[in-house]
Amino acid sequence: MDWQIIIYNGIKVGFLVSVPLGPIGVLCIQRTLQRGRLSGFISGLGAATSDTLYAIIAGFSLSYIIAFIEAQAFWLQIIGGLILIVLGIHIFRSNPAVQLRKQRRGQSSLLQDFISMFFLTISNPLTVFLLIAFFAGFGVVNPDNGIFGQLLLLFGVFVGGSLWWLTLTSIVGFFRSAVNLRRLFWINKIAGLAIIIFVVVAFSVLLIRNYLLK
């Protein structure tokens, strides 16, 4: 067992799973621009932790959990989508000046950033099937590696996801100094609207796939 290759494979999967910029990515960018790089990165760690939890399910082939997720995927996506729509409306209507005052008074909690992003990401159960596809496509799950090898792979998945969010928030953070209150106002409008559009499109695809194509 080559532990370096196992970790590398995990990093590769974790990074690629995190790259698609859906509503979670938009929210992470918005938080980076409004609250700073640390807030955006901690939010990203929440998403990476959620992806790692799904990687445990996918990597250890917990068939009964996968069966439950598959059976309830429609309603889980509906609930997660509704939460994202409410969040998108909140961001769209938020006043950046008020948010900055809260941040200066210490009312902006990094723990809240982490937890909120964790639960928003975990509300998308399709992640587990995406991870299964990546694991199968790259052939990275090898039962001969044992429990220790599986844990190394999961560690790599978390590191890979974290690297993506560190990269994204670092790049976005470079532009933060050029963002004033007026620009933050429009960034909130665009980010909130983008999240809502993402969810509406996802809902439309979900309804077409589940009802119109049957």
What are the salient characteristics of this protein?
0% strand
What features would you describe in this structure?
- With 214 residues, this protein is mainly α.
- It has one domain (3-82, 94-186).
- Helices cover 84% and strands 0% of the residues.
- The protein contains nine helices and no strands.
- Helix 1 (3-18) crosses helix 8 (146-174), helix 3 packs parallel to helix 6 (110-122) and helix 3 runs antiparallel to helix 8 (146-174).
- It is globular, with a radius of gyration of 18 Å.
- The mean pLDDT is 80.
In short:
By secondary structure, the protein is mostly helical.
Describe how the helices and strands are arranged.
Layout: H1 3-18, H2 23-35, H3 37-59, H4 63-93, H5 96-104, H6 110-122, H7 126-138, H8 146-174, H9 181-212
Helix pairs in contact: 1-8, 2-3, 2-8, 2-9, 3-6, 3-7, 3-8, 4-9
